[in-house]
Amino acid sequence: MSTTTARPARPAAQSRQRPPWVRAMRTTLWTNALPGLWFWGIALVPVGVATFAIDRVGEVELSIVQFVRYGAMWFPFSLAIVIAAMLLPVHVAHGITRRDFSVGSLAAGVLAGAGHAFVLTVLLELERLLYEAKGWPHVAGLDQDLDLAAGFLPTLGMLVPTFVGGQISGLLVGIAYYRFGGLRGTVALLLTLAPIYLVASAFAVGLWDSGLDLAPAASAALVVVGLVGGATAYHLIARRVPIRAVRS
Amino acid sequence: MSGYPVAARDLTVRFGATTALDGATFDLPAGGLHGLLGRNGSGKTTLLSTLAGLRTPSSGSVLVDGVDPFENARVMGGTGLVRESGDLLSDASVRSNLRLLGDIRSTWHADRADELVDLFRLDRRKAVSALSRGQRSALGAVVGLASRAPLTILDEVYLGMDAPTRQLFYDLLLADVIEHPRTVILSSHLIGEIEHLLERVVILHAGRVLLSDEVDALRAKGVTLTGAASAVAAAVDGLTVVATRDLGATRQVTVFDDLDDARLARARSAGVDLGAVPLQDLFIHLTGEESR
Amino acid sequence: MFEGREPIYVQIAEQVRAEVLSGVLGEEEQVMSTTQYATTYRINPATAAKAFAELVDEGVLYKRRGVGMFVAAGARGRLLAEHRARFFTEVLDPVLAQAAVLGITADQLARHIRGSAADSSAADSSTTDSATEPEGDAR
After folding, report:
1. Is the ipTM of this complex over 0.85?
2. Cβ contact B223–C45 (<8 Å)
3. SS3 of B244, please?
4. Alpha-carbon distance B134 to B162, whole Å?
5. Bias category Low complexity: which stretches (chain C) (predicted)?
6. Closest CA to B193 of B225, B220, B147, B161
């Protein structure tokens, strides 16, 4: 016998009206943001504990927050790999075009990278205020390249492209593994990590010292080539990728 | 929304040296419940994946609602293919997968998905990878039905279900298609139970379309003739015989051909018994080793 | 259910006709909707719709907008007349042909028929009544 009764059609929810690329952006941003919040929650505990402990046993001589900057880029980078390698097939298999997924995930990557950069810059700023109040020197330390005296906007201006570069590289690494397989995906790392190299090289300080002391125009050019080139490569690789049936 | 029509024109898909589809051509009208029948490895999943825009043809084309589905946002968004794998996040819970689909799919009906999860008694907290094969099949059915896509394709979905669950699935599917008319394609190599549910069937064999017709028309072409060997032999003279079995002096022959009533009446009066051929048997005869 | 060689819609239509003939479905009585029929017997809705459309064309059923399908007035009588006519051509003629082959005379046949008719009317006198008079059921 029939197990159904006539059911009035439910009015379409808000999300249905959203264009597909916005839907893809929301799901991928969510995938990025939730572990990202955990990251900051978890990272702040050792920072606070370390600052407190060092103050107790000795003297605070350098910024503790600065050490989070590697994690704040590489952790979301690893999430971006997962997004491209695992969420792309699920999205396309359920009706989102590769083009819309690519645009949505790139937009989410930019937002996530910028968000992490913003949080880190704010934390550095707060730390600076604390250090000033306590009379501690807010510096990066001898072998560190971060110029903490640069101020809020220059620091943000350096961290945002760097972290966005991390996101784009992550998406590129993920899509290369998905499309070309393990061996070729690994060989391709030389190219798929290029956005990070290029953006980081643009700044004499930052994640590492490129040893290059570039004119501002040259730096900007490296950033643009790294980000736009990476995003374009990701879009082109994603655009025609066949979606295999995954074994679950 | 009454569903997308579907067509393939000389569709060929190659993977390196293997040819998965070899010039497949067929049409399915908009709306209705249709079957894609083929043995394992006959190219069913490749064909369906191409229809859903998950891959491109090597040559030839597919048309869904009159257009190439590949990267067509409207048609891809209106197509719901459930492959046996489910295309879900296997390490995530049933609940978060369904939530994700609600975010991804514009046609998703969350209320319906919830009801179906309850009807199939699925544990929402379990990871997809921790589900049994039957439960995973049921989850596939939930995804296919709740997607309510104008082209809903269920690839091998009910194979993992036990008998009572399959019956539940057929009932739910039928009721759903009646309430929300659309094009539904069920693919399988086992259709004994669903023969009467289907309007048209496409039979795929070794990457080629063997048959594409209304189920009723196929049934009308198939007949078994059982009787004295000589009488049966005379009755089937000139017809396409797909199977012959001898039991002593009695012979049973399965014929697949255009049959005229006069010939059948003559056979009957010569003492030959006529019987229907279930679609499943016809499929087995047509795709058996001898036809290759 | 639906084991025969005929298309399913033919079998469905035949089943409904048989129910009208036997009086299981009375005139002006509502029949199952296509949807109910499809879900009850697990058959393709389009197939069920085709069968019902054929029955409407034949005048066995008629549609009341927004309500459903009903057995037409006089449907049983018409079906009876048709089936009676077909009985002679489709059922009796082959029997007679076979009888001729076997050398059974018309006289022997008539005697046999009279004998079994007497048996069945003795067993249930109302059978022949209701078969000849459609209103017989109402009494």
Report:
1. yes
2. no
3. strand
4. 7
5. 116-131
6. B161
